[in-house]
Write a structure and sequence with these properties.
Layout lengths: L9 E3 L2 E5 L11 E12 L6 E4 L3 E6 L2 E6 L5 E5 L1 H7 L8 E8 L4 E8 L7 E7 L8 E7 L6 E10 L3 E10 L5 E10 H5 L9 E6 L11 E3 L7 E2 L2 E2 L5 E3 L2 E3 L6 E3 L6 E3 L35 E4 L2 E9 L5 E9 L4 E9 L4 E9 L5 E9 L2 E13 L2 E4 L2 E5 L21 E4 L6 E11 L2 E11 L5 H6 L14
Length: 478
């Protein structure tokens, strides 16, 4: 379904906790909706992933790869994951946990999944598009996750900067089936752009101990297009502490930087501790939020914008629900610039993702679910004024309609591991968020929503219209 730009959004009152030098703030950021449509349906973890280019929207979830036109949402390509990899020139044996990003600086798409879980043959599947058209050809590769064949690769991540594309993963023991190491791969960009793309010059950091790079390092989409140092962030297992490891000299002789204690820094712990599983209406089990390193960690890409690193993670809120904590880091000084928690009493906000544009406008998307509300797709929009980011009301993108319970072999009611929110490369005041909602009994739908952030009236405009006295703390008229 395509909605016009003037469509009224369902707004839910929001209690916002902003943790910046003890200050509180609120913002009524004006936002309009563009496309808003259900893109896929299924049961079992979707792992909602997407990216946006100049003309296309790519939606990559477990066992589904779809492409839509950005103008009207028309579906122009639909494949299974195995078909996607086969067309890229590699065979899959049961790939999972998809990631896809669009690099606007070289107009290429990158995609990754892991393959052959619980197996010595476990590996990454990686592909780069051969043009800006994701429906055309891709070139695919396989990368062994462990040359010793004693572990398997899980929960891949994907990032880029001006020099390279980066992969990361969690490494589990084949025998123990317990998390044992982290893994990072560096793929030089010039190699991927050559007439015959290659990964022959890649650098692999295999079986990195957790005391060097913590579990589940998340990678960065560098929208400043800088070269040199590439940034990661990971959980530490200690409330109020995260790690900011790096990859140094990616275009020369790559090495890991800020490993171990050198990379840890303090952040606001909010209520302190890992998020709790999210209650839903009816008798179904709560939705799992702690699988695969999501507990007290980051599940979606970081964003480097205007020299700042932005991320969002799930944490335990003061009322016992799970909420979304956003953080803005100075990655070079290794310090927190500001942070806050998007919270509403009784509502769990799970699997958040963040996007930031060049004006430091911020969109965070997530699933919202409570004892009174089925799992629904939500977003919230923030504006940064004088260095302080404040968010408006919660925007309901698609209301959930059913209970959801699909229990895995160890008793978890898995919802998925992440969502995605990105900036449109053609118009950076346009954001896209890819979220999940409970559409039918034990089944989900994925919702792709275009959010257009309307610029705030400037002080000059307010003075010219005689309305400056009505603006409060830099907020515009809505």
């Amino acid at each position: 379904m395509v909605l016009p730009h003037s469509t009224h959004l369902a707004l839910r009152p929001l209690t916002l906790v902003v943790l910046l030098l003890g200050a509180s703030a609120a913002s009524g950021v004006p936002v309009e909706i563009g496309l808003n449509f259900t893109a896929a349906r299924g049961s079992g973890p979707a792992d909602v992933m997407g990216a946006v280019g100049e003309e296309h929207v790519v939606h990559f979830i477990n066992d589904q790869f779809k492409v839509f036109l950005k103008t009207d949402g028309t579906e122009v390509q639909a494949q299974s994951s195995s078909q996607f990899w086969q067309r890229a020139g590699v065979a899959s044996s049961g790939s999972f946990d998809p990631r896809v990003v669009y690099d606007p600086f070289i107009q290429r798409w990158y995609a990754v999944e892991t393959d052959n879980s619980f197996s010595p043959d476990s590996r990454y599947l990686f592909a780069v598009s051969d043009s800006a058209d994701p429906t055309a050809s891709w070139t695919g590769f396989t990368i062994d996750g462990d040359s010793t064949d004693t572990t398997w690769v899980d929960f891949p991540r994907l990032g880029f900067n001006g020099d390279a594309v980066y992969l990361a993963a969690n490494i589990f023991g084949n025998v123990s089936d317990e998390p044992e190491f982290s893994n990072v791969v560096v793929l030089p960009k010039p190699d991927l752009l050559s007439p015959t793309p290659t990964i022959a010059n890649r650098t692999e950091f295999q079986n990195i101990p957790f005391d060097q790079v913590s579990f589940s390092p998340q990678l960065t989409a560098d929208l400043d297009d800088t070269g040199g140092t590439a940034y990661m962030v990971s959980r530490s297992g200690v409330p109020g502490v995260v790690q900011l490891p790096t990859v140094e000299d990616p275009a020369g002789s790559p090495s890991l930087g800020r490993t171990g204690a050198a990379g840890f820094l303090l952040v606001d712990p909010v209520a302190g501790g890992s998020p709790t599983d999210a209650e839903q209406p009816g008798t179904s089990l709560p939705l799992d939020v702690g699988s695969l390193g999501a507990d007290d960690g980051f599940t979606s890409n970081l964003v480097l914008q205007n020299g700042s690193l932005w991320g969002v993670r799930m944490v335990n809120n003061f009322d016992g629900t799970t909420t979304a904590q956003w953080l803005q880091f100075d990655p070079d000084a290794q310090s927190v610039i500001q942070s806050g928690a998007i919270a509403e009493p009784g509502l769990n906000l799970i699997y958040p993702s963040i996007a930031v544009n060049e004006f430091d406008q911020v969109v965070i998307g997530f699933t919202g679910v409570s004892e009174d509300e089925f799992a629904s797709a939500y977003a919230v929009v923030g504006e940064t004024l004088n260095g302080v980011t404040a968010f408006g009301e919660l925007v309901l993108l698609k209301a959930g309609e059913s209970e959801y319970e699909v229990v895995d072999g160890i008793g978890r009611n898995r919802w998925g591991d992440y969502s995605t929110t990105v900036v449109d490369p053609e118009n950076t005041r346009v954001f896209w968020t890819f979220q999940e909602w409970a559409e039918f009994s034990d089944g989900w739908g994925t919702q792709i929503t275009q959010l257009i952030v309307v610029p705030e009236p400037t002080t000059a405009l307010l003075l010219a219209t005689g309305l400056a006295g009505l603006a409060v703390r830099g907020r515009g008229l809505h």
